[in-house]
Amino acid sequence: MKYIFPKDFWWGSASSATQMEGGYNLNEKEQNIWDYWYEIAPEKFHNNIGPKDTSKFYYKYEEDIELMKNLGHNSFRFSISWSRLIKSDGSVNLLAVDFYENVINTMIKNNIEPFINLFHFDMPMYLQEIGGWENREVVSAYQNFSKKCFELFGDKVKKWFTHNEPIVPVECGYLGEYHYPAVVDFKRAVQVGYHIMLSSSLAIMEYKKLNQGGQIGIIVNLTPSYPRSNSEEDLKASNIADLILNRSFLDTSVLGEFPGELIEFVKEQDLLPIYKTQELEIIRNNTVDLLGVNYYQPRRVKAKESQVKDNEPLTPESFFDFYDMPGKKINPHRGWEIYEKGIYDLAINIRDNYKNIPFFISENGMGVEGEEKFKVEGRIEDDYRIEFIKEHLKWANKALKEGCNLKGYHLWTFMDNWSWLNAYKNRYGFVEVDINNEFKRTPKKSSYWFKDVIENNGF
Ligand code: BG6
Question: How far apart are CA 96 and CA 416, in angstroms?
């Protein structure tokens, strides 16, 4: 064997509540922004499939966790649905407590460590109605929600994450039209980003107060930015992309401060959010213990080729263009670039510029549209996924050998799940979910290959 991983390496997969639970209105769950958006605009969702009964983990979690165990996984990340746990009057939904307690207990019984994330794009609608992340009160509501989760489940759960990909609700909800409320307004986006960052620090503060002996972190989609060339203009464009889209949350979560250059940029563009000096103190004093890093594809950047028009709204892309690099390797089933070395580059960046903080690959994966065409005698033969994981793991292994503090690798995702506006279009799971046949689970070829990797702690 050539690629050996450390003992106790975290092998598993990741998911999120809205994407796999289903039971969207069962047992007193409130609406979140996805339930609402689907109600008013179902045509936005691929094949008109909404979040009502996604993958049915809510009903089948025992079977699913047993399957995880049989496939050798030692850890699994999921999220707690805020709108399931906390009712609109602020009280705790005891039926939701039962559900999450059962999930956690079943995982522990099967030797699978629960990694819990608190926010994966699913704002309760009753809070969105008062402005969502734009409203400082919602930050306090999140702080209370996080505290409640630690109190309820912190005796058993020792790995917590405040947010998944915190830049995504900013980008997709306030700078693009992929998440509700789907507005394009840079100033509001900056306020949302600032409040999400503050909420993360407040949750960390609450967690530390309770002294529960676990670790708390954040999960960032740390997409490395690569400039088209070394020209001054391309380097500048790549730097600004990196600053807004990576360093905004990464620097602040790990080092406790918004990058000076970002503050300058925001001031120059007249985008400063409303903030209080004491809040900056909270951010400074409550940094993460652990980092989750989601990596799918690189961000290739070039200097802007045309002037931004006067009537165009300002967005991050007013300052750079995406670069379509000739000859790049592509996942033809999703259209995303595959660049395995990106995993190594981001690991080295964390080692050298972020105090070599412990981190793990919290999502990596390959989406495939129309994956049923790869079915042979009832099983999806996903050799492309095996290849994809293997090549990324080789670079992860090299990073480990060079002193990076890499703790684990989670695939997105365990079983095919519903992915926001893309619904069930792109399949990512180790396990096929047949949405036309009672959501039947069938492990794909890659799940058995991964099981061997886990058993051997390498390949
Ligand atoms: C990740 C998100 O960035 O991408 C997931 O954390 C999402 O929630 C995944 O499902 C895949 O996205 P898509 O659009 O290819 O289905």
Answer: 23
